[in-house]
UniProtKB/TrEMBL annotation:
Comp. bias (Basic and acidic residues): 21-36, 390-404, 415-424
Family statement: Belongs to the zinc-containing alcohol dehydrogenase family. Quinone oxidoreductase subfamily.
Provenance organism: Limulus polyphemus (Atlantic horseshoe crab)
Sequence ranges of Low complexity compositional bias: 10-20
Pfam families recorded: ADH_N (PF08240), ADH_zinc_N_2 (PF13602)
Protein name: Synaptic vesicle membrane protein VAT-1 homolog-like isoform X1
Location of the region described as Disordered in the Swiss-Prot/TrEMBL record: 1-36, 367-432
InterPro entries linked: ADH-like_N, ER, GroES-like_sf, NAD(P)-bd_dom_sf, Quin_OxRdtase/zeta-crystal_CS, SV-ATPase_mito-regulator
Swiss-Prot/TrEMBL keywords: Oxidoreductase
Domain Enoyl reductase (ER): 47-374
Top-level taxon in the UniProt lineage: Eukaryota
Length: 432
């Protein structure tokens, strides 16, 4: 074959099997890397504990005016239980990352943020998304930690003590010589209210809590009552004229009882609705019952009886009503009280992300004393080994084999002992 023909064959071969073009190589090089992922606690759907999942989610990017936080500790609140059941107003569509408060280190700062730098230690109040390894939060909801405050203390203080401070001082306007009734006295907010009230002289604290908590919190309250009994009559025995302030996180029938316990010029303050949560999932009966049990109060009734009724919800105040500067001022006051040794957060327990369902159940059952903390870096509890019928049968066989071996060993030792005894009897006895 001539050289031109060979050259032509080579051209044809190149056309039929062209080498990878430079454009294709360039496109491969320009393909974006997959987004980095993080561990997060996600609500897959409203309902029971099985709807709470630990999943890998894309790491958030820090936007303008935002702060990216590497989360070290998160707070678990009763609000999170209500979110899981779907009994709060305007919840986001599932799936979404749970959690309303966290503490950690600043990992990134968005454009326009000047008062925080990378590496700073901060806490944040978030509108969801706090239960993750990373969270990006608008700077107006982020607060620098005092020197020496641990992340767990920050997460246990932030929401609970801000709520308690506003209830006690800004709405309740508590003064020396007054009396205060506090429901859920063993919870995180209840313990915070107790500590803050004790910064005012001669305040009588009456708390209701489950009987099993009384021993743990007996030093926090002047009088502790079992919420399951007729606590109204018990309070009337202690103070026939009533109390000055009622701090109610339960709602339902407790709202009527609280209002009727007020002295003249007394103040009833609602800051929660725990009574609507009865089972693991949402109960329309409990919702209707709580609403139906509450008397409708006419302003003229308040006028005639010289009583006040008010409510407080931190989330609405912060995210819907724009009071972030006011809340920042309260956070600063709370942190200053901690620095001065006037308050100390009570931590009930710390849990891994993987164990959040169990932690939620503990909170739902009102078995905690103080705050429940979540730690994204904590190792989960070891899970019990799953046993099947086959594995149980094998275990029984092993037990039988073990017993048989034990019996044989015991029999052998008995024979040896017999031989020794026979040897001893045949040997001459020693002279006395």
């Amino acid at each position: 074959m001539s050289e031109p023909e060979a050259a032509g064959d080579n051209v044809n071969n190149e056309e039929n099997n062209p080498p990878e073009s430079k454009t294709e190589n360039k496109n491969e090089e320009e393909q974006p890397e997959p987004p980095k992922e993080m561990k997060a606690v996600v609500l897959a759907g409203f309902g029971g504990l099985k709807s709470v999942k630990v999943m890998n989610k894309p790491q958030p990017a820090v936007g303008e005016g935002e702060i990216l936080i590497r989360v070290k500790a998160c707070g678990l609140n009763f609000l999170d239980v209500m979110v899981r059941q779907g009994v709060i107003d305007s919840p986001p569509k599932t799936p979404f990352i749970l959690g309303f408060e966290c503490a950690g280190e600043v990992e990134g700062v968005g454009e326009g943020v000047t008062d925080v730098k990378v590496g700073d230690r901060v806490a944040a109040l978030t509108e969801y998304k706090a239960w993750a390894e990373l969270v990006s939060v608008p700077a107006k909801y982020v607060y620098s930690l005092p020197q020496g405050m641990e992340f767990q203390n920050a997460a246990s203080m932030l929401m609970n003590y801000v709520v308690a401070y506003i209830l006690v001082f800004d709405i309740g306007n508590i003064r020396s010589g007054q009396s205060v009734l506090v429901h859920s006295a063993g919870g995180g907010v209840g313990q915070a209210i107790s500590q803050l009230c004790k910064t005012v002289s001669d305040v009588t604290l009456i708390g209701t809590a489950s009987k099993h908590k009384h021993e743990s919190i007996k030093d926090s309250f002047a009088h502790l009552l079992d919420h399951g009994v007729d606590y109204v009559q018990e309070i009337k025995k202690l103070s026939p004229e009533g109390v000055d302030i009622v701090l109610d996180c339960l709602y339902g029938d407790d709202a009527n009882k609280g209002y009727n316990l007020l002295k003249p010029l007394g103040r009833y303050i609602l800051y929660g609705s725990g009574n609507i949560v009865t089972g693991e999932t949402k109960s329309f009966f409990s919702l209707a019952k709580s609403w139906w049990q509450v008397d409708k109060i006419n302003p003229m009734k308040l006028f005639d009886e010289n009583r006040s009724v008010s409510g407080f919800q931190l989330r609405h105040l912060l995210y819907q009503q724009g009071a972030h500067e006011y809340v920042r001022g309260v956070v600063n006051k709370v942190f200053k009280m901690w620095e001065n040794g006037h308050i100390k957060p009570v931590v009930d327990s710390t849990w891994a992300f993987e164990d959040v369902p169990e932690a939620m159940q503990k909170l739902h059952d009102r078995k905690n004393v103080g705050k429940i903390i979540l730690d994204p870096n904590m190792e989960p509890k070891p899970k019990p080994k799953l046993q099947t019928k086959g594995s149980k049968d094998k275990d029984k066989e092993k037990e039988k084999d073990g017993k048989a071996v034990g019996e044989t060993a015991a029999g052998e030792s008995t024979d040896a002992e017999k031989e020794n005894k026979e040897g001893d009897s045949s040997a001459p006895s020693s002279a006395n």
